[in-house]
Amino acid sequence: MAAIGTAHAAPTRASDAFPTRPVTLWVPWAAGGATDITMRLLAELAGRQLRQRVLVENRPGAGGTLAMPILQQAEPDGYTIAQLPQPILRVPFTQKVLWDPIRDVTPIIQISGVTFGVLVQAASGFRTLDDLFAFAKARPGELSIATNGVGTTPHMVLEELFTARGMKYIHVPYKGTSEQVLAVDTGQVMVGVNSTGFAPFVDSGRLRLLATFAAKRSPRWPSVPTLKELGYPIVAMSPYGLGGPRGMSAAVVSTLHEAFRKAMFDPAFVHEIGKYDQELNYLGPAEYGQWLREEYAKERIAVQRMGMARAPG
Question: Which CATH class is domain 22-113+238-305?
Answer without folding.
Answer: alpha beta
